[in-house]
Structure formats: structure tokens, C-alpha cells
Amino acid sequence: MWIDTHCHLDACEFAGEAEAVAARAAEQRVSWIVIPAIERANFSTVATLAAGLDNCVYALGIHPIFVPQAKEEDLAVLRTAVQAAMDDPRFVAIGEIGLDFFVPSLRDEALREKQEHFYSEQLKIARDFDLPVLLHVRRSQDIILKYLRRINVRKGIAHAFNGSFQQAEEFLTRSFKLGFGGAMTFTRALQIRRLAAELPAEGLVLETDAPDIAPAWRHPQRNAPEELPSIGQVLADLRGISVDDAARLTSGNAYSALPRLASLS
Predict the structure, then answer these.
(1) For a Cys-Cys bond, which of 50, 131, 240, 246 suits 90, CB 3.0-4.6 Å?
(2) 224 burial level (CB within 10 Å; 0-12, 13-18, 19+)
(3) What phi-psi label fits residue 171: left (phi over 0), alpha (psi between -120 and 50 degrees) or beta?
(4) What is the DSSP letter of 228?
């Protein structure tokens, strides 16, 4: 059994194919796919997708790349949507939220401040509802951690982790898991592969981030959750364990990070 902890199944690249994509993943023993929201406009979309697909669950949040066009009222809408979703067993987290200081247009001082504001306010929603968070941490790990020190969120996943060992250790100390996916499959990704091989086993989860971050054998084509077992094989090889052990390990860690998902299994 495998769990894809981060997959944008609602993306336009999957238009009209989501059911078939989820079914192919299920055939490859991908038992769960977590679909994070990215903006107010797709809150209902991800919830509807998860309701109609046996192996899908969802998260609600505002992605940092969508913060520039977001309005302050969107945070209130998110809080209301989360309150309503607490009765839905397929709602498992707040996400995708965080900070992105890689995209040049988002490094403008005003947009950095707006990103931090939206991130902080969404952490408070997660705290208030005792929910884990799915974090976008691109070139922003230290600032992400600064806010986690201020706002007590009990669990979550640092998606597509590519930080230092010191940063990784602080996430793990805070009961967060670290997401590894297609980037790990490229032999030139030396730091990511070292992290995947050497970090404590209890800190690792798998993801595809489909349709993005395709593994080496699919790049530059569209990624899909059916690739997760092959990505898991790479993790197994890096750690010197069996692929079955990699599946058990990462699935158990995903359940630990996402208690509402664990309650469905």
C-alpha cells in the first residue's frame, strides 16, 4: 500500500481524466491520494473530487503562488469552509499553504509580507481546529519554521523538501514529516538523495505533486500518482531496504502526519 501525500488531481492537466488517473493509481496499490486546494476558487472542486473517488481525500488552503490575487476575505471564507468540512471524513488538513521565495515576482517586499500574513493566518486556522498542515517551503524553510515556533500547529508535512539537515531536524522535532517525490529520482539531485537516504526513517513520506515534478523516467511529461510505487522503489534503493518496507514505512508516517486520514483506514 502506498499513500500519495500531495497530488493536484484537480489541475487542468487532468481535465476529464481524474477518475481514470485515480483508478490507475489504485491498480498500482496507491490506496490514498491527498488533493490540496490552492485558492478559494477550488475549495469545492477538491472536496467534490474526493467525495467521488474512493482513494482520494482533500485539504483546504491558499497556496503562496495564489496569494498575490487573494483577498483578505478569502481567509474568512477558508475558516468557514474548514468549519463546515470538519464533518467530512475525507477532509484531512489545511493546505497547500506556506511561502515561496523562489519565484522572482513573489520576492517583492510587499508580496513577501502578504505571503507571510496569509501563511500566519492559515496556521492559526490549523491551530484553532487542531489540524495538520501541508506546507509549501520553496526557499523559505527558515521563515516557515519561524512561524511554526510562534503558532503551535501539532503536525504536518513539509512538501517537496529540499532544505538542509539542520532544517530537516527542526521539522522532525516539531512532529512534521518531510515529503519526497520525483526530484529524488534524478541522480544529480545529490542533496535531496542524501536527505532521503540518511534522515530518520520515521520522518519520511512520499508524494508525486502531480502533474508536476515528474520522476526521471517521465520527465518532462505529465506526472501522475500511479508513478508513486516506482518513486518508492528509488527511496528503498537509497536506504537499502525492501520496497515493501518502504511502502509500510512511508504509509505509516503519512497516517501519523494526517490523523483524519488514518481514521478512514
Answers:
(1) 50
(2) buried
(3) alpha
(4) H
pLDDT tens, 96-128? 999 999 988 778 888 999 999 999 999 999 999
Q: Count CB atoms within 10 A of the CB of residue 210.
A: 28
- Which residues, 6 or more positions from 209, have their beta carbon under 8 angstroms from its beta carbon? 6, 7, 8, 159, 160, 181, 182, 223
**pLDDT digits over 196-242, tens only?**
999 999 999 999 999 999 999 999 999 999 999 999 999 999 999 99
Domain that holds residue 184: 2-262
pLDDT average, residue stretch 165-190: 98
Q: What does the DSSP 8-state code read for residue 103? A: S
Strand partners, 204: 178
Dihedral sign for Cα atoms in the order 97, 99, 105, 110: positive
Q: Which residue has the cell 526557499?
A: 139
Number of structural domains (the chain) is 1
Q: What is the CATH number of the domain that holds 36?
A: 3.20.20.140
What is the length of the chain?
Answer: 265
The percent helix, strand, coil of the chain (3-state, each to 5) is 50, 15, 30
The pLDDT-based confidence of 174 (bands split at 50, 70, 90) is very high
